[in-house]
Amino acid sequence: MIADDDRCPCGGGAYGTCCGPVHAGAAAPTAEALMRSRYSAFALGLAEHLRRSWSRTTRPGALELDDGTTWRRLQIVDTARGGEDDATGVVEFRAAFRSPEGAGVLRERSRFVREDGRWVYLDGELLDR
Fold it and tell me: Any idea where the domains of the chain sit in the sequence?
């Protein structure tokens, strides 16, 4: 497990003041903050956070994380809306990883919406690398 004073996998500072509170159940203040928490959840193997932060309209019935993938770095490319007063938001990111097949980069434009006042992941469009 990760300690509060360890560097957060998303690169946003100390885990205890970055993604840790969102993983513990606090509402993410912005779409970008939720996206960062989801990246960190993939890196830490927190499947329950991923399910909980996924829109009930698009959430898969089951979610299996790939233990062989190591998430190495997150880069936020662009954001549109997704602030504290918005109902929707878009976050484009690049996530570097290493898998048994080798190194790679996942690039996605993710859409977020509010459900019951909380940001959730709606869906994403994979972009060319």
Answer: 15-126
User: Alpha-carbon distance 9 to 23, whole Å?
Assistant: 12
| CATH of the domain spanning 15-126 | 3.10.450.50
Distance of CA 122 to the CA centre of its chain: 12
| Buried/exposed code over 28-46 (b: 16+ C-beta within 10 A; e: otherwise) | bebbbbbbbbbbbbbbbeb
Provide the pLDDT for residue 129. 58
Q: Each residue of 77-127: pLDDT tens digit?
A: 999 999 999 999 999 999 999 999 999 999 999 999 999 999 999 999 999
